[in-house]
Specification:
Layout (H helix, E strand, L loop, with lengths): L42 E2 L9 E6 L12 E6 L6 E4 L10 E5 L11 E7 L2 H6 L7 E5 L7 H5 L3 E2 L10 E5 L8 E5 L2 E2 L4 E5 L11 E4 L3 E5 L12 E5 L3 H12 L2
Parallel strand pairs: 8-14
Antiparallel strand pairs: 1-10, 2-3, 2-5, 3-4, 4-7, 5-6, 6-7, 9-10, 9-13, 11-12, 12-15, 13-14
């Protein structure tokens, strides 16, 4: 299963088209001192300064009618030009024009619809769709004379953080819902190059969701192994290492 929902890509299992029920689960309800609890419980994300930096990706032809059209998630990260978003490589490797709506809810884009300009994919993905390279950046154009980071802010992108050093909060947009969901837990190693997290209900559309630690650093991006995971309850991210750091430098520095 891939965690995006573009109609022209491989179909997803039937469970991904079902309405997502966000009932609280009984799993891991204890809070920890490095992040707010409960852990491994998924709920609708509140409209906060942090969550509005996360948004949904759409094909450009949906810019005037967003409802029901999002297929992946992305988030704003700090950069010198203040115009950068991060997502999964498999979300942006096609030829079609895309737009990004930070803070998207219920068919509305309260912070604008931003045109995706230049896309930055690592060689490992561009040359062979290597799941260990499933991360990408994209710049977005100005809107009404403003840059996106000046409107919604941006989290820091940080490579080299040890998997599970702290808990993280994952925020993303299931294709079956018109609001973002959120879950906090501690990542675990899956392999030397992949990390995983247990968070229920992260179904199709959540590819590209940022994994944000308590220091407001993006330390993972939902994707990687099985393009994000084969079940809605366990998600994956590339371990952000040297390749991700180099890609960020290229993207932040411009063409």
């Amino acid at each position: 299963m891939m965690r995006n929902s573009r109609l022209w890509m491989t179909s997803r299992p039937a469970l991904l088209s079902a309405v997502v029920t966000l009932a609280l689960t009984s799993a891991s309800v204890a809070a920890a001192d490095d992040a707010p609890g409960p852990f491994a419980v998924t709920a609708v994300a509140g409209a906060t300064a942090q969550s509005l930096r996360v948004g949904a990706l759409f094909s450009a032809d949906r810019a005037d009618g967003l409802a029901g059209g999002h297929f992946c998630t992305a988030s704003v990260v700090h950069s010198p030009r203040r115009d950068l978003i991060v997502t999964a490589a498999h979300c942006v490797d096609g030829d079609g024009d895309l737009v990004f709506a930070p803070g998207y809810r219920d068919g509305r884009a309260p912070y604008g619809v931003w045109k995706v300009d230049r896309r930055y994919l690592p060689d490992g993905w561009a040359k062979g769709q290597d799941e260990d390279s499933d991360i990408a950046f994209a710049s977005v154009g100005e809107l009404d004379g403003k840059r996106i980071e000046d409107v919604v802010g941006g989290n820091r992108f940080v490579a080299g953080v040890a998997t599970g050093a702290t808990a993280v909060t994952v925020v993303g947009y299931p294709a079956s819902r018109e609001v973002p969901i959120s879950c906090t837990n501690r990542p675990r190693p899956h392999s030397r190059t992949q990390q995983r997290i247990h968070c229920p209900e992260f179904t199709g559309g959540t590819s590209g969701s940022p994994w944000i630690n308590g220091d407001r650093q993006v330390v993972g991006v939902l994707g990687g192994h099985e393009r994000g995971g084969s079940t809605p309850d366990v998600s994956y991210s590339v371990v952000l290492g040297a390749e991700a750091a180099e890609l960020y430098r290229d993207a932040a520095g411009g063409p």
